[in-house]
Design goal:
The complex is a heterodimer of chains A (115) and B (111). By secondary structure, chain A is an all-beta fold. Chain A is built from no helices and twelve strands. Chain B is 0% helix and 58% strand. The N and C termini of chain B lie far apart (38 Å). Classes of the chains: A mainly beta (115), B mainly beta (111).
């Protein structure tokens, strides 16, 4: 069965500093990988996705992520964090089941940004 | 453009009462639909998904059920709520094999 590990429950960074959120997955085939962001009490917004091809993917809000098959990782990065980036971030791996895609999520990393 | 709606936004229900949460999608046809639950301090757990009208797949045994009476409508129900049913319920949609898009969620508190 597929699984996702986000080892950092909580991260605090200063505004303007760089950010890296870690994600490790377990999946038997080539994974579909996603990063979502959730503000308090809100739904999830897709930041970026990896299906195939270039292992460095660009997303919205200046985020990027790099797929490293040898490390089973899909870490999220941002060069300069803004206070509005404070939120919870979820990594997910997708499994195709017929026409549906079933997502398995990590437990999330809560990002706090200090001014 | 596509939009997804969920209601109610918040709900407080006594133990043993019934439940009905509704999710509708606009701007697309034949979507795959999903129900997730997010418990406090935990990630999201897939509860049900549907690839078409009347087609429901359950991922975990539980006190809940789902139905899809129309192409773009997905309903989560319970006959008798338990305390453990409290949580944040999220509906999502996708097209074949692609990313999922989430609704704003329903906060359910069972007392």
């Amino acid at each position: 069965a597929q699984s996702v590990t986000q080892p950092d429950i909580h991260i605090t960074v200063s505004e303007g500093a760089s950010l890296e959120l870690r994600c490790n997955y377990s999946y038997g085939a080539t994974p579909y990988l996603f990063w979502y962001v959730q503000s308090p009490g809100q739904g999830l917004q897709l930041l970026l996705k990896y299906f195939s091809g270039d292992t460095l993917v660009q997303g919205i809000k200046g985020f990027e992520a790099e797929f490293k098959r040898s490390q089973s990782s899909f870490n999220l990065r941002k060069p300069s964090v803004h206070w509005s980036d404070a939120a919870e971030y979820f990594c997910a791996v997708g499994e195709l089941t017929g026409t549906a895609s079933k997502l398995t999520f990590g437990t999330g990393t809560r990002l706090q940004v200090t001014l | 453009s596509q939009t997804i709606h969920q209601w109610p936004a918040t709900l407080v229900q006594p133990v043993g009462s019934p439940l009905s949460l509704e999710c509708t999608v606009e701007g697309t046809s034949n979507p795959n639909l999903y129900w997730y639950r997010q418990a406090a301090g935990r990630g999201l757990q897939l509860l049900f998904y549907s690839v078409g009208i009347g087609q429901i797949s359950s991922e975990v045994p539980q006190n809940l059920s789902a139905s899809r009476p129309q192409d773009r409508q997905f309903i989560l129900s319970s006959k008798k709520l338990l305390l453990s049913d409290s949580g944040f319920y999220l509906c999502a949609w996708s097209l074949t094999g692609n990313e999922q898009f989430f609704g704003p969620g329903t906060r359910l508190t069972v007392l």
